[in-house]
Amino acid sequence: MSQNLNAGDVCLKVEKFNAWYDQFHALKDINMDIRKNKVTAMIGPSGCGKSTLIRCFNRMNDFIPTFRQTGKILFEGNDLSDRFIDPVEVRIKVGMVFQKQNPFPKSIADNVTYGPKIMGVRQKSRLDAIVEESLRNAALWDEVKDKLKSSALSLSGGQQQRLCIARALAMQPDVLLLDEPCSALDPIATSKIEELIIQLKEKYTILIVTHNMQQAARVSDHTAYLYLGELIEYDETTKIFTAPAQKATEDYITGRMG
Amino acid sequence: MIINSSSVQIRKIKENTVQAILFGCAIFSVFVTAGIIGVLSFETFEFFREVSIIEFFTDTQWTPLFTQKHFGIAPLLCGTFLTSAIALIVAAPLGILTSVYLSEYASPRVRRVIKPILEILAGVPTVIYGYFALLFVTPLLQKVLPDLPGFNALSPGIVMGIMILPIISSLSEDAMYAVPQSLRNAAYALGSSKLQVSFKVVIPSAFSGITASFILAISRAIGETMLVAIAAGQMPNLTLNPMESVMTMTTFIVQVSLGDTQTGTIEYKTIFAVGTMLFLLTFGLNIIGHKLRKRFREVYA
Amino acid sequence: MIQGAQPIQKIIAAQKRNEAIFRVVAIAAVAISLATLGALLFDAFSDGLRRLDWQFLTSFPSRKPERAGILAAIAGSFYVVSLTSAISIPLGIGAAVYLEEYAKNNRFNRMIEVNITNLAGVPSIIYGILGLELFVRMMKLDRSLMAGALTLSLLALPTVIISAREAIRTVPSSIRQAAYAVGATRWQTTRDHVLPLAFPGIMTGIILAISRAIGETAPLIMIGALTYVAFLPTGLDSPFTVMPIQIFNWVSRPQKGFFECAAAGIVVLLILTLMLNGLAIILRNYYQRKFSVRSL
To answer: Which helix (H) or strand (E) holds A176?
Structure first.
């Protein structure tokens, strides 16, 4: 396995990580360093473990009773997969956007302020500022600034997904996880989100799971290819897509399998 | 071909006959509704030919069985409202807590044990609840409230609350269960605790379904008869004091039909006038309740 | 981290505390309902078992509480409920089959559906009023077994229809397609495949409807089921009483001795209802486990 990524601070360090659902070995001995302020894409065929892996970074697998894991994911010097670390603490620092847009059936503003309110922010002026800032960062402000009080469900699918991104940004996380964020969107909405991802990496470390290899090529700096729970190759995106070291990676990206 | 045309004919006739019979079964329910509405409106119309509709709604006394007759439904409405309100005050918080617990917290095993027990609570004949209210709950309350009379609104109200609790808890739980998991995930990913997910996301998202459960439960409480007939008393009483004895609309109907009232008398017709009020109230609430449920189901279909 | 936010450790501590408090409160709420059921059962059994004996089960009512019995009421309940089942079950299943298997999704059929939902919410005493006017007065059935059974049938009908429809709906449509594919007509498909598969579910609904019918009091008081019946019903036109009415009558008497009779009657009624409810729950759980289509 090659891991030739040069320079840059490490944000998340995955060490000897294994995961199981019941008897099924979903992730096998994963080692990878995820760099700060970069977009890291995870690609691979369905069931390869890329979604399982991304959900480990904010402990969303805790809800699955049959889920077990070994190994470490180091973040700011702590193992965030340690069961003595409260998952709430992890999720406050590591935000997530899901496959299908899932805005709360509340107003646009209430969606954005949900997290800050959980964090004890009460001051109205502060909350208003967070709404504007987050929506601007999610490139949605201009479209919704006149109807912040209307229901989030009245927005289009692409707008809803950007609202979900804004909702995650409102927490000011260090890391943003995107689990196939465009899989339910049309091409125009998709390109808007891709532009947004490229802008966001200035402030955040971004991990994106995608089925769409062109998307990985367009938005990411680094790409990891997973297959049957193993990390086959992890390198600069340009290298993966032009001169992959592994035959398996080449087969996948050229469409000979998966 | 192995089928000749005459057997196809016979088959068709048979099919059509069966379909006609089944349609008859289905349409029968419409006749029942028509029967209810027809009977109630006919006799109620007769009633209002003798009693002014203004007196019915404005008089503050209800004494149709006395020589000095008054036909003000207010005391009966008041009794019905009082017992139902007490029931809702008991059942709403307990029902919400129970449904959140069952839908969000309880393990499948706990749920499998508790849900059938709650259903049994809904299946106990109401005459038994009446006995329980009169001879167990009232004496118990009298230890705390020595002035409480043997017949009062409080005791049957509380017991009725327990009786309608399964309606609220099971319909609300259904509504909460239908809230998509993706909304819970979104809230968890923002650092929520289970309690915050339940109260800030699940309950608001299931709001119309939960409201529907309240409305259907109130409707049930308003129509409940034996419990109040046994334990609330037989005194039409324009009061909102739960410590007093009250008569509900349903109790009055039972009281009249227990006596030997002749057909065609004004006393007999009061049954139908009061019945119409009861029907309109419960029918209206049921329609609103089911509309809300349906709307809720459509949101998360 | 957000500016103006609380420290994470403080937030987590508060969350944990609230979580613990809620668990206690919620379990207390569940415990209240369970305790009430427990108290009700305990109260009825502790009062009633003293009085419940062979003499009580085999005697007719009496002016003297110690000689009173529930025989006429048991017989009356048995006859009324049997008749009610005989009327409401075929009608209810027929309506359910029509609505699930035959009805097109048009305005008229939707009206029938809404109508049935609303009928299920009509207070039982209103059915009593209908029975009083329609069966007792207009059809001149008087205060007979038949009038009582007809009234209860109308009351039970919506419950039977709704539960039968739910049961029929759980039958996968692939079964129907398989039957049609070998040339079965709609009725043959329904009779030979859909109804047998839906049978346990339909039974569950029927048992619950019967158990409710046994406990119904108000509509039978309306049609004038007598409370003092010192004989067994002799025919469809015979006057009758039922268990809940007999209990109501005893509860309404001033003498303490009759309260014991009421409690004993309640024990009999409770045992019957709980047995029927239990049977329905067991049947449904068995059925769900066997035919569950919901995975995860």
So the answer is: strand A175-179
